[in-house]
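Give me the fold.
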Amino acid sequence: MPRLVLDMTDRRPIWAMPEWVPARIRDALPASWSLDVVQEETDGSGDGAARVSDHVLRLVSDAEVYFGYGIPAELLEAGTQLRWVHSGAAGVGSSLTPTMLTSPVVFTNSAGVHAPPMAETVLAMLLHFTRGLDLASDSQRRSEWSTDPFYVAGAPLLELSAMTVGIVGFGGIGREVARRVASLGARVIAVKRSPARPGEANLEPVSGGGVLGSRIEMVWGESGLDAVYRECDAIVVAAPDTPETRGMIDEEAFSRMKPGAIVVNVARGRLVDEQAMIEALTEGRIRGAGLDVFTNEPLPSDSPLWPLPNVIITPHVSAVTRGFWARETELILRNLERYLLDRPIEEWENVVDKKAGY
């Protein structure tokens, strides 16, 4: 009997799997299939916890499909009959073990599922700086009614409709960010590593169903990054964590940015050189930084980032939302239908390119 193992009982209450999720998956399976729901708590934070129990290893030993948070090497080694594994996490770095890279198993992730709340966090961070909420918070801490920071010549108050926002990495998160800032009138420049296909247009709609008439400018590679640094009032880091992207926002990058630029990172901390960013912030070369991710997590209590007045810090929670399970379940069910119908892998969603690392 074909077996599907569902191992997504997250220990964090807001991520708790509702009872209707396994019920819907069971309804989608043929009668000849069995569904095993692991009741042991797991941890979906980051790229997913690399923990496997003896119980889970026994279940996957003869399973065809496994859904969890991250795919540890031990699980693939035990699940010799696995044909498809899916992670409820967006990041895949910890799952791309040598075992995964040599395995023929299809690997899918949940990157687009997390994009809407992450994009709204980005929008909140941008507005925090453009509307001077950091200035107001500073006065509030001192119990001081102070309009001076808002009234001085050169006060750092902007409107998104007059800004150019650069997006480094135009995947699921980048697209959702583009939809939101473009809807408020911002010009958007999005950079990707390379064109998706020969002759791809450098203008692309940002609306999913034509709700917005806005278009964004697509740029590519190093020349595209240079355009983002030179032209953008705000830069959003939304690229995957790969050997090629680690440390890409370095000292040189900060030196090329427009004076007073805002930097927001909701991707991974290793993409940004933290020391170079701290220097740019303390010297006032950039307006501020909205940071949800860091090189070392949890962020050490003695990090110079904590006391900086032009930094807003969230503890890697930009993806937290009560809307996760509705989107996650629909993604699972769409791909499950393709799997059961033996559809070509090109028709699947969220298939991880193991060699590219995302």
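The chain has twelve helices and 13 strands.
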